Amino acid sequence: ETGVTQTPRHLVMGMTNKKSLKCEQHLGHNAMYWYKQSAKKPLELMFVYSLEERVENNSVPSRFSPECPNSSHLFLHLHTLQPEDSALYLCASSQDLFGLAGAYYNEQFFGPGTRLTVL
Amino acid sequence: QKEVEQNSGPLSVPEGAIASLNCTYSDRGSQSFFWYRQYSGKSPELIMSIYSNGDKEDGRFTAQLNKASQYVSLLIRDSQPSDSATYLCAVNPPGGYNKLIFGAGTRLAVHP
User: Fold this and answer.
1) Residues B75-87: tens digit of each pLDDT
2) Euclidean distance between CA atoms B76 and B61, whole angstroms
3) Of A76, B25, B102, B109, which has the fewest Cβ atoms less than 10 A away?
4) In terms of CA atoms, which chain B residue is nearest residue A10?
């Protein structure tokens, strides 16, 4: 496996189900992210993990629960979702670097995404 | 005011022409800028990053950054039908380590 992988690629769930999305990065990066992409809306950052610690929680409802057991794996646990949560969920990773004179490098690489449909 | 603004398009150019995509951002002091390409039904793919004022060229792509005017652009030379996609501009805001703000994207259509 190379790059960033996500499973499952497609998921249909009812509002009372509990499911989990999985992301794995094979790039040796130190940060991982969850994004949500809805139709006709910009990518929305949900969560950021840097060195396995959550550093950003972008006002995401508690029905979304992230988990980062190590620097290569990231999960998004889903429960009691709403139909409006149907979207493409994207995982990304980056190797954050601080260069000379305070320069900061943060190239993020995305996985293929999970297309989630909530019925 | 949106933090990162892009014209939604579609921008239609003939094959072989130069496609010019523009992006403006609101946070002065933003430090890193990225262009992603996203084909329909696929995930975003990083095509260019730029960190300092001026031009950066990579093959048929040139990114241009003007921090004083708060805009970043992407030029695609010799446009091909395979370049037809949505192009996303992303900005790392000041102090926003690990945080990228994305524009809504510009849809590019290259016709033969």
Assistant:
1) 999 999 999 999 9
2) 5
3) B109
4) B41
